[in-house]
Fold this sequence. Notes:
The complex is a heterodimer of chains A (379) and B (391).
Chain A lengths: L3 E2 L10 H12 L10 H20 L7 E4 L2 H15 L6 E5 L4 H12 L3 E5 L9 H7 L4 E7 L11 H11 L4 E5 L11 H4 L3 E5 L10 E5 L25 H12 L4 H20 L4 E3 L9 E6 L4 H10 L2 E2 L1 E2 L10 H5 L4 H5 L1 E5 L6 H17 L6
Parallel strand pairs in A: 1-11, 3-4, 3-5, 5-6, 6-7
Antiparallel strand pairs in A: 2-8, 7-8, 9-10, 10-13, 12-13
Chain B lengths: L1 E8 L9 H17 L4 E6 L2 E6 L5 H8 L5 E10 L3 H11 L1 H6 L2 E8 L8 H15 L4 E2 L6 E7 L4 E4 L3 E5 L8 E5 L5 H11 L3 E8 L6 H18 L2 E7 L1 H10 L5 H19 L4 E3 L12 H9 L5 E2 L7 H11 L2 H4 L21 H8 L4 H10 L2 E5 L4
Parallel strand pairs in B: 5-6, 5-7, 10-11, 10-13, 11-12, 13-14
Antiparallel strand pairs in B: 1-3, 1-4, 2-3, 4-8, 4-9, 7-8, 12-15
Amino acid sequence: MAEIYFDNSSTTRVCREAAEKVMEVMTEEYGNPSSLHTKGFRAEQEMSAARESVAQALGAEPGEITFTSGGTESNNIALFGAARARRKRGRRIVTTAIEHPSVLNTVARLEQEGFEVIRLQPDCAGKIAPEQFREAVTPDTILVSVMRVNNEVGSIQPVEAAADAIEAAKAPALLHVDAVQAFGKLRLRPRRMRADLMSVSGHKIHAPKGVGALYIRSGVHIEPLTYGGGQERDMRPGTESVPLIAGLGAAVRALPEPEAELARMRELNGFLRRELSKIPGVCFNSPDDALPYILNLSAGGVRAETMLHFLSEKGIYVSSGSACSKGRESYVLRAMGLPKDRIGSALRLSFSRFNTKEEAETFVRALKNGLASLVKRPF
Amino acid sequence: MKEVILVKLGEVVLKGLNRHAFEEILRKNIRRRIGRLGGFDVREAQSTIYISPQGGADLDDAAERISKIFGIAAYSRACEVEKDLSAICAGAEDYLRKPLSTVSTFKVECKRSDKKFPLKSPEICAQVGQYLLDHFPNLRVDVNHPDYTVRVEVRDFAAYVHGDALRGAGGIPVGTGGKAAVLISGGIDSPVAAWMMARRGVELTAVHFASPPYTSERAEQKAADLLRKVGEYAGRMTMFTVPFTRIQEEIRAKCPEEYFTVIMRRFMMRAAEKIARGEGCGALITGESLGQVASQTLQAIVCTDKAASMPVFRPLIGMDKVDIIALARRIGTYDLSILPYEDCCTVFTPKHPRTRPLPKFIEKAEEALDTDGLVEDCVSRVKVTKIEPNR
C-alpha cells in the first residue's frame, strides 16, 4: 500500500540531502566545534555552512542566526528573552489567540510574572485585522508576537500591520514573528518585515526533528534563558548538535524556489478544493487566501478522529483539527467562531513538495468512501 | 553484613493439606518476578521465605517487586548475623543505626525458634536493649508505645535483626485460583477488577474489543499498557484483541437504538467466552459496578449475564467510583486510564439507552442478527499480544 502523507505541518519526511548530511557529520565530522584541533575546526565549518544557508534563506546575516532545538525553544527564548530585557520599559505584550501553544503558554507564564497580555481574536477566516494591532499596541508595549502563518488553517497574518502599530505608538516593543509554518514556503525577509525576532523549525522543512533557529536582528538584545559555555553567542549554550544543525543547513539548501513551489501548491490545493466542494457535507475552514500548503476542512458530521483512523487504515495520513475527545477541540477553530459540528469533524491536510496530484485524487476517493460508510454522530 | 528479605505468608498458612501446593506456587512466582534482577536464593523454612541476594543483586528492586506479589502478608528487610549475642548486638547497632538515631523510644522483641540457643527470648531482649541503650544516648525504653521496635529472630541457621515489617500485597498466590478472562476496555474499572481477581489467586487472560476506525491503535496500546501495569501484580498474560466494528455496525443497522449497548455487551460476553474456553478459563471478569451507567443497572446486567454460560465475576459490583479510583491509584493504572482515547464502549452510544431492558425484548431484537456467525467471524480474526509485566 502506497502511503500518502498529508500531515506535513505536523512534521515532514527528512529529505535525502539532509539525512546524508546528518549521517556524514555523525560518523566523520564528529568533533566538538569548540575544540581547537582540526577535527573541531571541521565541525565548526559544518556549523558555519548551515548558518550561512539559514541566513541566506532569511535574507539575514549569519551572525543573526542562533540555532536551537526547534520552534518551541525558539519561541521561548524570543518571548522570555525579550520580555525580561525590556521589563523596565513597559508591561504590555500583544499577541493573538491563535498562536501555537509554545507562544500561548509562554505568554501565559509571563502574565503570571506580572505582564499584561492582550490576545487579539481572529475573524471567521482565521485572520487578525490590521486595525486590531493599532488599537492594542500602546506606548508601554514591549513585545508583539504574531505568527506569519497559522498552523491549523494556514491563514496569513498581517505582520506588517503589527510593525506599523509599533512605529505609530512609538512603543519600545520588539516584534517577534513565529514563522515555523511559513519558513521555506514563503519568501521571508525579517528585516523588510521589520521583525526583530523570528522563529523557524527544521522538521517542517524536511530536516530532522530537534533543530531550529531563532533570528535575532543584529543590535537587538534579549536575555538568554540558559547559561553555559558560551556557544551560540551565549544565547543558547551547550555543545551544539552539529549533525542536526548541518542537516538543517542541507535541508534549507535543498528547498526549491518558494515562488515556483507556491504555484505548484496552489494548483494542488485548488484541485482539492474543486473536487472536495462537489461532495455534499464538505466545507472549508481555511480561508481562500490561506497558504496553499494547508487545507483545513470539515467532513459532514463524521468525527474527525474516526475519519482520521479510517484514512489511516488506507495509508492516508492527515491531522484532525480537533485533538482527541471532548474538551480538547481546536481553540483556533473555536476562536474563529465555527459551530461545534464543524470543529468536531475538522481535518487538516498539509502538503509538501513530495505530494502529487495523483495522491490528491486518491484522497478524494477515500474521503468519499469514508463519508458513505462511516457512522455520523452528534457532537 | 548480609541483608536479606524475610517474607511472611498471608492467608496461605490457613490452608490445610493443600498448603504445600500454595507455597510451592508462591515460591515459583517470587523466583519468576525477581529472577531477572540477578541471582537470588529463595528458600522456605519455618513458615518464612528467605530471599538472599547472591553476588551483586539489588535488594531495593527485589523488595519493590516483593511488595507486589500476592500471597505475601508482610515482608521485612533484615540483617543476617551469626547466632551469637555479640553478633546480634553489633548487627542491630549497625543495621538499624539510621532509624534508631532519629527516634526517642524503643523496645526489643525477640522470637527464638531455635530452642537450643542458650538465652531465652526475654533475656535476649534485655541484653540487646541494654546494648542499644549504651550505644544510642538518644534512646529510652518504652515497652508500651515505642517509636520503634527492634525485632530479633533466632532461627535454625542464623539470627535476623530488623524493624517493623512492611505490608505485603495480601491475597493468595496467582495461579492457585484457576484462570479467568477479563474484559479490558481502557477505562478505570476493568484493570481494578482484574487486579482484585488476581489477588484471589486467579491467573489472567485478557480480552479487548477494538473498533477501528472508530477507535485508534492508541486505544489498544492503552489497554496493553494497563495490563502490563496489572501484570506487575498478576504476572504475564495474553491479550486477545477482538475486531468488533462489524458487530457494532450490524447491531446499529438492525436493532432498536435504545438496546444498542446491552446487545453489544451481550456480544462481548459471547466472544469473550469463546476465547476464554479456548484458553482453559473457568470464568469471565468485568469491571461492572451496579448503577454506574445505563448498561450497569440490575436489569441490564441480568440481560448481559444471560448471554454468558460461564460465571461472570464482577468484583466491583458494590463499590463506589471513588473507592475504585482510590484502588486504581494504588495499583498505578489510574493515570493511564484517564488518557483520552475513545474506546469501543463509547462508540455508537445511543442518546437515550433503555435503563431497564427486559430479556425477552432483547432476545427478540437479536433475532435480526446472525449471532453465531458474527461471533465466529470476529473471534476468528482475533489478534494475540503477549503481555510482559513492566518491571
